[in-house]
Amino acid sequence: MELNGKEYQLIANYLAGECTDEEQRKVEQWIDQSQENKRQFQELKRIWQLSGDAVSSRDMEWNIEQEWNRLDSQISKEKLSSRSKNSDQKRYWSFRSSSIHSGTQKFIRIAAVFLVAALLGVLSYQGWYQPEQEGQEPVLRQISTENGQRANLTLADGTEVMLNADSELKIPTKFASDVREVQLDGEAYFNVSENKDKPFLVRSNGSLIRVLGTAFSVRAYPEDQQVQVVVEEGRVSFGQEEEHGGQKAILNRSELGTFDLATHTVATRTVEDIELYMSWRNGYLKFEKTQLKDVGTALERRYDVEVFFEAPSLKKLLLTAYLKSRSLRNVLDVIKTSLEIEYQLDENKVTFMK
After folding, report:
1. CB contact at 8 A, 112 and 120
2. Which terminus of the chain has a lower count of CB atoms within 10 Å, N or C?
3. What is the pTM for the complete model shown?
């Protein structure tokens, strides 16, 4: 029996005791449908128990692509059959029979990582592996992070990506023959493997970044109203997507480019302190004359909290600080001292006060 990504996640939630009543009924009805289903559930339960407490969602960095490739390779070796729909059967899920073998300890560890990751929400695989056929649109895998989480992944071409909190990356199961293309919502750092014959493209909020091999960071959160690119090494072509024929610019090392979503214009400037844009990779936050409301948004992503302001005037206060502590309370103490304000921390809620 083959399970897809969403169904693995639902079973993981069931094993962790985090299902709704309806989801619990669906899982239990599927288990009772056949002896094969019961056998497979017991196997998944055993894998889940083997995973133990080795993985924590808080500030965890996952090498997602490596684990996916290992899992995908193992699935191919096990010769799992492709899914097919059976319209004559009325069931809650379209599960089909095949088998999952415990095989080796290596596969158990990989499967455990996959299951735990699904539970924790560190990533979401949407669309289980499907062979691509000639003339079809490429199959995309979606990798996403929640607040308080980051993810490391290495793509098939060797490109390294770090995905910041509250971000989403879509990558094809296989790059095209002439181009390597991904889609980003949120923030990510790319260290692109050089290939002069196969440019690397990042599409984000109507903008296009084109490189041959370089290192750069992209920020494209919806509330920013702009796409921001900072180049650490090499050169980057950056601007509006080609099909719209918009303005473009070439960015070199230590240069910042911004694409305004309203005017579709590109502005560039030299960056003196690149850590203002790259510090998040190490779990730090660095601000220079940044409004407290934007600092609050960064805190929400970094520490998975909700930030509130007792008075609207507090949102406009300007903070200059390098917040390197892993402790939220220590970070809040620095902000308190710097801006001469107070704060209240209640579980996962932070309130700034005069």
Report:
1. no
2. C
3. 0.65
